[in-house]
Amino acid sequence: MTPPAADELAGPELTGPELTALLARLLTDDDYRERLAAHGPAAVTGNPAERACLATVDHGELAFTARRFRTDLWHGDGAGGIADAFPRSLALLAARGRPRARLVREFLASPWFGRFRALPYTGEGISLEEAFAGYAMDLPCAAPDGADPAAQDLWYTLRHEMLLALLTALVHERPVSFRTDVPGILPTDHGHATVRTCPARLPARWGASAAADPGSTDVTCLYVCTPRAMAFGPVSRRVADAVLRPDGPEAERVRQALRRRGIW
Question: Residue 259 and residue 29: Cα distance in Å, rounded?
Answer without folding.
Answer: 48
